[in-house]
Amino acid sequence: MPVLAPSPPAVLRALGLLPLFALVGLASACGGKAGDGADGADGADGADGGDAGSVSYYADIQPMLGQHCVRCHSDGGLGPADFTDPDVVQALAPAMRAAIDEGRMPPAAADPSCQDYVGSEALTMPQAERDLFGLWVDGGLVMGDPSEAPAVEPVARELKNPDLVLTLQAPYTPAFADSENPGNEYRCFVLDPEEFGGKYITAMAPTIDAETIVHHAVLFTVDRGSLDDRYLGDSGWDCINGRGGDSTDGMLGAWAPGMLPIEFPEGTGMELPADKLLVLQMHYFYNGAAADGVSDQSGYAFNFVDSVTKPVIMAPLGSYSFTIPAGDPDHTHTESFENTYVPLNVLGIFPHMHKLGRRFDARLIHSDGSETCLVSGDYDFDNQMTYQFKEPVEFAIGDEVRFECNWDNSEGDSAVGFGERTDQEMCYFFTLVSP
Questions:
Q1: CA-only gyration radius of the chain, Å
Q2: Does 418 score more than 50 pLDDT?
Q3: Nearest CA to 393 among 337, 344, 352?
Q4: Domains of the chain
Q5: How far apart are CA 379 and CA 359, in angstroms?
Q6: CA-CA distance, 135 to 123, in Å (whole number)?
Q7: Angle, nearest 10°, between helix axes 86-101 and 127-138?
Q8: What is the value of pTM for the model shown?
Q9: Under a CB-based contact definition with an 8 Å cutoff, are residues 264 and 348 in contact?
Q10: What mean pLDDT is reported for the chain?
Q11: Beta-carbon neighbour count of residue 79 at 10 Å?
Q12: Residue 23: pLDDT band by 50, 70, 90 thresholds?
């Protein structure tokens, strides 16, 4: 049965009691799996009719990498190697080309031709730019003149001049001591918004401290007074099997590598009730000796206003009633939900599955039979995004939203159904809506 309501049980089932993500091929999301050689573009001609020798690093490749790659591949970033260093790019160029030509890099994201979204130009790489990289490799990795490099606006990963930044009360060093979940630790920490309670969030983004060990962060609310002293210390608590407290009632946001800040349209915002505390769930992962003794003091940054004309809520749209047969390489589940409540504007959407997820699609079926695509594309478990639409999409009374998830269980020897563990599956579209 489909769900479209910001209800506590739905959110808890969706994201609360067990982690949102798991460690699966993290390097493939923001670093790429190094290829064995160069395949793909034959180097005959560029998209603009030029030949391989006319392509240079500073004029052509550096701005392309700045737009599409360095949000993960930079000093301290989650992806391996620093693509702001031209020597590194030269050395890794054949492997980078293989990952680009095979479609592994940049990682999968929603198709902007379905519904254009903020950051689409950074998250998707046109074929012409893929071909250009191949031409550069074929032309002998010409560097050119640094003065030829055009100015490139970096992709913003944090809010500029936020009104409030809340971080962990003290640095925390993961122990990775859970023998049942080796190499992973899920830790929850209380953040107190104090005088900002009762205001409306107009923008938010995490401030990730130790990027090399942070796999995801989930922010939700909890009633003041529902947490006892076990949860209020600066070292937080183990929350792989539960977040604590008796009233966890609303996911405000989630971050995974590659996600961009959430900024709501003017006049809209998400209420942060005065009677709530915030809880930040951090998923830390062990990535080898480089993680030994590393501490983290991540947090969240916000912009606020006192009032809005249109409140924003996060409504989980999803299904519990699916079964993915054992050995099935291409299983699709489709459901629909009719808006019989109030007219809504859809501001953005966050598709979510687990490790078997391969494709997603959600669209509005209007009462006149026409369709509006909301989000569609290939799914990457390690590169999950909240897609913020450049223009709101009207979801009128009488319209129906149809959503579908596709999974690959070809290597599974048992059927897989709905569940919170990452060896189970989900089909969710966490949707930002306003009246």
A1: 22
A2: yes
A3: 344
A4: 31-148 (no CATH), 157-309 (2.60.120.310), 313-434 (2.60.120.230)
A5: 5
A6: 22
A7: 120
A8: 0.76
A9: no
A10: 83
A11: 24
A12: very low
Residue 377 to residue 351: CA distance in whole angstroms: 10
Q: For residue 386, what are the contacts with CB-CB under 8 A and spacing of at least 6? A: 253, 254, 259, 260, 262, 348, 349, 350, 430, 432
Q: Between these two residues, 294 and 53, which has the higher pLDDT value?
A: 294
In contact, 15 and 99? CB cutoff 8 Å: no
Q: Is 91 helix (H, G, I), strand (E, B) or coil?
A: helix
Give SS3 for 358: strand
Q: How many CB atoms lie within 10 A of CB 368?
A: 7
- The rounded Cα 102 to chain-centroid distance in angstroms is 22
Q: What is the full DSSP assignment across 130-159?
A: HHHHHHHHHTT-----GGGPPP-PPPP-S-
Residue 73 predicted with pLDDT over 70: yes
What per-residue confidence (pLDDT) applies to 244? 52
Q: Please, are residues 304 and 199 in contact by the beta-carbon 8 Å criterion?
A: yes
* Residue 125, both tokens: 């790489």
The CA–CA distances, whole Å, from 97 to 55, 70, 223 equal 15, 16, 50
